[in-house]
Structures are given as C-alpha cells and as structure tokens.
Amino acid sequence: VQLQASGGGLVQPGGFLRLSCAAFGFTIDYHGIGWFRQAPGKEREAVACVSSDYRVTDYIDSTKGRFTLTRDNAKATVSLQMNILKPEDTAVYYCATSYPRSDCPPNQRDFRSWGQGTLVTVSS
Prior knowledge:
Elements: E1 2-6, E2 9-11, E3 17-24, E4 33-38, E5 45-50, E6 56-58, E7 67-72, E8 77-82, E9 91-97, E10 118-122
Parallel strand pairs: 2-10
Antiparallel strand pairs: 1-3, 3-8, 4-5, 4-9, 5-6, 7-8, 9-10
C-alpha cells in the first residue's frame, strides 16, 4: 500500500493549487483518504478526509470553504483543491488512508501509508 502526494509549489496569497494523492498497489474504493499538513516548527494536523461513500470530514475550521476534496476511484486518486491560499497554509502536505476502515476517523493514528509529502509555500 503506497500513497504519493504531489502538486505542491510556490503560490502567492489569494492563489490556488490542486494537490493530488495517487495510490499504488492499493484500491482506494473502500477506504477513507485523508489530507494532512505539517507547518515548519509545528505538529502535523489533519485537514480533511473523504470516506469511501464520498462523505467529507473537515478537521479544521481554517480551511472550510476554501479547500475541496474529490475522489476518483477509477483513477485511484484523491485531489485537494486549495483556493484563496494564505501564508498560514504553508506546510508539507501528506495524504494517508484509513485502511482497513472505510470512514474518516478522528485520530491520525488510524491512518497509514503516509509516503512523502509535497511542499506548499504561500508567499508574495
């Protein structure tokens, strides 16, 4: 089971980015996929997750209404569309799966297969 996040980069405040989480050797159809981030000097925090039945859980208020998750089981990918980006969104973003669960659990310890993250830098 391997997940790989991609799509990060440098963007100005107010801009947007679309991150992608690709699954390898793993069928995402029946499991939750979550996005997490770790800012410099801070602990990793959960951002949002989409369950196997397409229900989205937002773990933090600061990204509600700006970040949108979509899953494409056929392509084995989950995307995180990030709009109206702010400097405080700067972080390394990771994706992980709640396998073998199908939902989006509240604790990060229930997620696995973190893989390498992708750096998002919001700066002018």
